[in-house]
Structure formats: C-alpha cells, structure tokens
Amino acid sequence: MNGAESLLETLEHNGIDVCFANPGTSEMHFVAALDRSPGVRGVLGLFEGVVTGAADGYARMTDRPAATLLHLGPGMANGLSSMHNALRARSSMVNIIGDHAGYHRALNAPLTSDIEGAARPFSHWVRTSPSANTIAQDAADAIGVSRPGRIASLILPADTAWSTAAAYTTPPTAQPLPEIAIDECVIEAAARNLRINGKRTAILLGGRALRAEQLALAGKIAQATGATLLSDTFAPRTERGAGRHATMRVPYPVDAAQQLLSRFDALVIVDSKAPVAFFAYPDKSSVLTAAGTTFYEVSKPEADSVAALEALCSAVLGEGAAAAPSTPSRLAPPALPTGTITADKLAAWLGSAIPENGIVLDESVTTGRSFFEATMNAQPHDYFTPTGGAIGWALPLAAGAAIACPDRKVIALESDGSGMYMPQALWTMAREGLDVVSLIFANRKYQILRNEMHNVGVHDFGAKAESLLDIGSPVIDWVAVSQGMGVPAQRVETIEELSKAFEAALSDSGPRLIEVVL
C-alpha cells in the first residue's frame, strides 16, 4: 500500500464518501488510488473554485465534510474564494493539496510555492504530511478538526503519495474536537432579561441555530416573552417556510439595520455574533447596534445550539417547556403575478414556485432584495445566502447540495454578473446528472456596484467608471453558455414564460437553466 492508498482508506474509514477534484501531475497516485476506494466518489470540477464551492454546498446539507483534491499552490489559489465563503459558513471541509516531492521543492521548479502560508488564512488547520508512514494519522487528524464545522488543509507531497506506507490493521479513527460547554450563568442572565424586558430584546440566530429544531425552541421563547426573532443578514442554511418559525433578517443597508436594532436594549446571541456593517462607509458607523446594548452569548459558534436553547427555554418558561408545542408559520404564498418581469414580480412568483422540500441558493444580489420576505410562507425549504461575500458561489454550491441530497430539487438563483465567475459548475451538473434548476437574472450590469457607488458618496461618475459597471456590451448569451456546458437552457421575458419553463424543469430530472431577462 502506498501513501495515497493509505490516505483514501482513512478518508473512507471515517465516513468521507465524496472527493471533489481538479488534479494535476503531483496528485496522480491519489487519482489512481480512487479506483481502489469504492466508497469514495470522485467528482471532477473544471475550476478549483467549483471544487471547493461544491464541498461547501455538500457540507451545508450534510453537516459533515467532503474531501477536495487541489493541484499545488496555484490550484489551491483558484479555490480560495470558495474556501473563504466556506470558512464564514463554518462548513466542514478536508482539502488534500498536492505538492512537489520533498527533494524537488529545493529546485524551485515553476509550480513551487508556499502552500502552507497561502492556506492558513482560509483554514483552521494546516499540515504537510512528511511521509507515507504518517499520512493515515495526518488524515484522521484533519477529519477530526473539520467535524465541528471547520476547514482542514492537508498537504500531500508527491513522494508521500507514491512511497510505501507502513502496514496497519485498521485505519486510524478521527477524534473530533471537545464540545464547547454552555455557560449556565449566561443562560440565567439572558433568561432574567427576557422575563423582565422581553419586548425590548431580540434573539439573534445564525449558523446551525437556523435549523427547524432550534427555530422552534427560539419561537417558544419569543412567543412567551414578546422577544423578536432575528437572523443574520447572510446565513449558511435556514430551514424555513410553512411549518417552521420565521425570523426577521437583519437588513443589509446600514441605515435600515441600525433603525431595526435601535428597538432593542439587549441581544441574546445564538451561534452568531454582534452585527456589523458589511463595508465601511463615509459618515456611517460600522457598528449596527445601539450604544449601550447588552449582549448575552448563550451559544458560541460551533457549540451545541440545541442544548443552549433548551436550557434557555427551561430557564425562561420552566422545566418541560422545551417539549411543548409552538406555533410555526402557515403556508401562505403570495398571489401569482403576470406580465413582464420585474424584481418585485419575481419575488412574488418565487414565493409561489418553490417546491416542497426544495433547496434554494440565493445569489440574486440586487434583483433578489425582497426574495427572503416573499418566500417566508412558501412551501418548506432550505435557503442558502452568501456568507463570506466572495461572489460566484451559487452554482458550485448547488452542485454540492445536489450530490448531498439527490432526492431533493435544488434551485440556484444567480445574477448574470456573479454567474460568470464560475459557470464551469454547469459542466459538472451535466456530467453528474444533477437535479439543479439554475435561474440566471440578466440585467446586463453590475447593479450592486452602481448602488455601492452612491453608498460611498460617489454620485457623479463618467464614461470610464460606467464601463466598469456594465456587462451588456457584448451581451452574455446564457442559453449558449449553458448549452455549451451540456445543460439544456431557454430564455424567458414574461412571468407566464418563466412559470411554464420552471414547471417543466421541476417535472424532469437533471440540470436545467432558465435565463430570466429583466
């Protein structure tokens, strides 16, 4: 057995069953070892950002890591934007990054780089495996680190992969990091505040606290105390729609967020942090909460938010309250609009169109500002939003989510500008036959940047600046792009055409793309 085979055996032994890959010469022994690892599925991405993005989407739906296979430093560099988003989403991921053989690195060949140094800002854990004899334990350590929702990057030198590994009876088993303890004093202080001042208190939920079980517990507390349920502006995955408890999302614009948060004297924070502005702006505060706000961090990120909310529920309402029923949202989709397509009509249409148990990935940027509210009472579904701000994420994550949940329909809501960052994801969808419907909202411009120009105080700009905010010359033909990647596509210009195309896509299997002209 060589080092690569030992590594694959350890991955499989510890429950990693998918490897998203874009390999090169230094990873060929790993690729060959996949043939002898029947429990690990290899999925090819034509760009490393698709590879790491798909691993993020997979982890958001399964709460466990996939592996990625990346080619040296430049290959990893291509995947860093998606790694950044995954880091902010607290997704589990195990990156296997090939490197030159140890003796070859000293020759400073063209692809030589500081892989460890480049990986550290985007990883919780980085290690270079020094030999075939250590790679199994190194892999188990990487998997253990990743399981609470972390990114582990293991560098695999070529000679570590091809050299003979020491024999063992069974591969090592990953040991997860210790659980973060709940602070009972913080729980009791938060409960006291909720009982006394519930109407001036918000419960801010993020991360895994936006799953149905946690939302139900938080909903009971809010109903009993008058507290307001808030969610992060951008959350990795929210279980929402009919039958789940709804939250009010902290707005993206600074003024709107500050106006909302000024209503509260205290924030009970569950798997989140105190809200701050996405960017700095002239003459605006980066802190969104009012001066003097009291914070109760009852569940830190990566802690057990279910246990924390159960404890808070019991402290507020008494023992056994966590098991009592609560009142979730009812199915109440908006009325279906007609005619030419506008952003508001799209929001209403989406609230009626989301299928039961769908997985929705929303990178609609400016077009979709009202999507979240309009879909609050849609069919039950999962909803992804951007976490790290690196754009182009929706199509790659849709591929990973579809591999994680092949029995569910995945809907990617993508802007035309953002979609051009990683359209290669369409090729992977076609190759793997993934059940993804991609809606491309084509307004032919970087509208978010036009808005941000005004937000930073630049109200008068000329032709040269204008040219950097416009993508309509030449017009991107998304139907041709999609068909060239092997995904059937069509263009629509009315709500009626959109409804017909979407219903046809839902009734069929495999990937489809609809270009929605605005």
UniProtKB/TrEMBL annotation:
Gene3D superfamilies: 3.40.50.970. Keywords: Thiamine pyrophosphate. The keyword Plastid does not apply. The keyword ATP-binding does not apply. Residues 1-105 form the Thiamine pyrophosphate enzyme N-terminal TPP-binding domain. Belongs to the TPP enzyme family. This is Acetolactate synthase large subunit. It comes from Brevibacterium daeguense. The lineage of its organism: Bacteria, Bacillati, Actinomycetota, Actinomycetes, Micrococcales.
